[in-house]
Amino acid sequence: MSTSLLPRINLTPNETRLKDLLLDLTASLAQDQPNGPVVLRWAGGWVRDKLLGIESNDIDVAINCMTGETFGLELGKFCQQAWVVEKYGIKKDDLHGLHLIRLNPEKSKNLETATTQLFGVDLDFVNLRKETYAQDSRNPEVEFGTAYEDAMRRDATVNAMFYNLHSDSIEDHTGGVADLKDKVIRTPLGPFQTFMDDPLRVLRLVRFASRLGFTIAENTCQCMSDPRVLDALALKITRERVGIELDKMLKGEFSSFHFSSPLNTTSIN
């Protein structure tokens, strides 16, 4: 879909303040990046919720050429500069809780990320990525990727949209805007590949449909009950993780939805 045909996102004053500060930071980093300028996108659930008219104080920030850990450290230093403090009226408690998550493959930590809160907004910083899955694990091999590759690895098209801070526009590589309008949950890639890569996505999509009151696309719904997918769900996902998803599902506004889904949860008990 042409960018000119995509809806626009209206930022709150606080979101505009946050956006402008992050753009100032990327401008200050421009001279030091061998892989080109830093480009920031707000990703996933925040974009979906804004288009649905739901305000959110939780933003995933996707970075094109820098790890989330590195960007988080740069943000911390940037917000201490006198001119930044003055321009954005940064108070003592406006930036706090910078937490770094370092690379640790042995504990399934395959990304260097950072989380913090700025101006009352919870921020998660992570680089754009593409993922490759082994047959017996839902923990992928991860490397830097493009916005398209990052969108295609996600669980649902409505969760795969980006808001580009630099162009002030939505980027939709998977048809998420149309699916959001039609209230449909579908996978960016073929559902069989999506579910075999990470079978937990079966439960996540049912949960999103439950929460949003959306319908799951027919081919996606049929694939959820494929015996190979259910076997992978039992093999790759712990009972505890399944229980967490089921609990979240039951708390959805439209929680009765999941009882009519084709997923036979007895197969994963």
TrEMBL record:
This protein's GO CC annotations:
mitochondrial matrix
The alphabetized UniProt keywords are: Nucleotidyltransferase, RNA-binding, Transferase
- Every copy of the Poly A polymerase head domain together lies at 41-186
Q: Name the InterPro entries for this protein.
A: NT_sf, PolA_pol_head_dom
Cross-referenced SUPFAM superfamilies: Nucleotidyltransferase, Poly A polymerase C-terminal region-like
Any one GO MF term held by the record is: CC tRNA cytidylyltransferase activity
The answer to whether the entry has keyword Ligase is no
The protein's Enzyme Commission number: 2.7.7.72
Q: Name one GO biological process term.
A: tRNA 3'-terminal CCA addition
Output the Pfam families linked to this UniProt entry: PolyA_pol
**Entry keyword annotation includes Nucleotidyltransferase:** yes
Family the entry assigns: Belongs to the tRNA nucleotidyltransferase/poly(A) polymerase family.
Name the UniProt record assigns to this protein: CCA tRNA nucleotidyltransferase mitochondrial
Which organism was this protein described from? Ceratocystis fimbriata f. sp. platani
Question: Gene encoding this polypeptide?
Answer: CCA1
